[in-house]
Amino acid sequence: MKAAVYEGPRSVTVKDVPDARIEHPCDILVRITTTNICGSDLHMYEGRTSFETGRSMGHENLGEVVEVGKAVSKVQVGDWVVLPFNIACGFCKQCEQGLTNYCLTMQPKSDLAGAAYGFADMGPYQGGQAELLRVPYGDFNALRLGEDAAERQLDYVMLADIFPTGYHATEMAQVKPGDQTIIYGAGPVGLMAAYSAILKGAGRVWVADHQPDRLRLAEQIGAIPVNTAEQDPAEVVKEATLGLGADNGCECVGYQAHDPQGEEDASLTMNGLIDAVRFTGSLGVVGVFLPEDPGGAEAQGQLEAQGKIPIDFGMLWFKGQHIGTGQAPVKRYNRALRDLVAGGKAEPSFVVSHELDLDEAPAAYEHFDNRDDGWTKVVLHPDGRDGSGERRQAHMTLEDLRRQASERGIEGRSHMNRQQLEAALGR
Questions:
Q1: Smallest Cα–Cα separation from 271: which of 313, 318, 210?
Q2: DSSP string across 333-362
Q3: Chain center to CA of 150
Q4: I need a surface site. Which of 66, 281, 336, 422 has the fewest CB within 10 A?
Q5: Which three-class secondary structure state does DSSP give residue 248?
Q6: Is-contact 181 246, C-beta < 8 A?
Q7: In Å, what is the CA distance from 94 to each residue of 87, 121, 125, 167, 412?
Q8: pLDDT, tens digit, for every residue of 42-79?
Q9: Residue 39 CB burial class (10 angstroms; 0-12, 13-18, ≥19)
């Protein structure tokens, strides 16, 4: 089978690897039709983690079940499923408490917890940017989808990670109807946090970033964009709240946060969040922070390479703020979020900018890593079909579509995502 394989820093190749197969009676085998490149994949792509060469990447996966193990009783061949990036057993102490993000069984190292597909330090499991994926404990880990799964893959695949992760950020931040919420980071997870806050009924949601294309998407869903190259988000929020600050906030950037000039500062967004949120407010931190960062010494300093981040703990304590951190327990949220999608109440696919064949993964990683304009979320299709199940046509970039829209005089084109542009162009 073909898979996107990590070959070293900034090197991904698509090549033939041994077929995934059933290895345990509780396994299922899934033919992957839609798989995303995640922002956290870039930490590995850039060589900032201990990810091994030769492993396939990809932890945001959706597809059709093609084989089940002898002990599988619920999932059946032919089912369409989306797979939480957390690989969990369902019966360990952590899983019994709903903490599938810190499963003890699937993590082979006794001093660690948590497992995932194609991810550094989270077990030996291969990723789903491939034609086939082995799913351990399929009855527990696979979320079955309805009859519209094949036609709405772009929405449902977001349930593998970024939609539940963004929602988890708002849960830890205790976002409630009417709240005023600040989101640091307008990447896919930050946009999902903003989207989740809006779905929960937040009164005002600010999104801070310095990437104009991502800020346009934030504005499109009803958030207030704050360009950090031009404004201090904390001051913007304070000015709008009589100097008090937001009720709560979410950190959706992580340890490779950097200023508009490109200088890394792992404490940048955390300190901004502490400043922007009011006394006794809550912070939800889902941006990735690591205890070891092999590239951190050169990029920032020796302390940052050891995960020691100089956050303003004194102000955090003084303001009596609450903080929640860590990866999302996807299964806690994915069923309810699936039903929002199925009922037409949520369309998380608005973040998608590019649908590409698996063979195009190397170029996709390069563009996404460079933060090239318009590359907000990349979806790969190992089966050569698009997110509606149709055979993919020749690829057009977002800029190609905007150029065509300009030639036809279509208004609002600069704020449209790929799906809206294609609909306006009748593609």
A1: 313
A2: HHHHHHHHHHTTS--GGGG--EEEEGGGHH
A3: 21
A4: 336
A5: strand
A6: yes
A7: 12, 18, 20, 20, 48
A8: 999 998 888 999 999 999 999 999 999 999 999 999 99
A9: buried
**Cα–Cα distance between 326 and 340 in angstroms, integer?**
24
- Across the chain, mean pLDDT equals 93
Quote the DSSP letter at residue 137: T
- β 204-209/224-227 pair status: parallel
pLDDT band at residue 399 using 50, 70 and 90 as cut-offs:
low
Question: Smallest Cα–Cα separation from 194: which of 212, 213, 220?
Answer: 220
Instruction: Give the C-alpha separation, 41 to 12, whole Å.
Output: 11
- Tokens representing 110 are 């006794």
Q: pTM of this prediction?
A: 0.90
d(CA 256, CA 186): 14
Amino acid of residue 136:
P
* pLDDT band per the 50, 70, 90 thresholds, residue 409: confident
Within a 13 Å sphere around the CA of 211, how many CA atoms are in the beta-carbon half?
24
- Distance between CA 177 and CA 366 in Å, rounded? 39
Question: Structure tokens of 154?
Answer: 């772009």
Q: Please say whether the beta carbons of 6 and 353 come within 8 A.
A: no
Query: Are 129 and 380 contacting, i.e. CB atoms less than 8 angstroms apart?
Result: yes
Q: What is the pLDDT of residue 201?
A: 98
Q: Which residues contact 92 (CB under 8 A, 6 or more apart)?
A: 103, 104, 105
Question: Does 16 score more than 80 pLDDT?
Answer: yes
Q: Is there a contact between 131 and 3 (Cβ–Cβ < 8 Å)?
A: yes
| Sequence-distant (≥ 6) Cβ neighbours of residue 308 within 8 angstroms | none
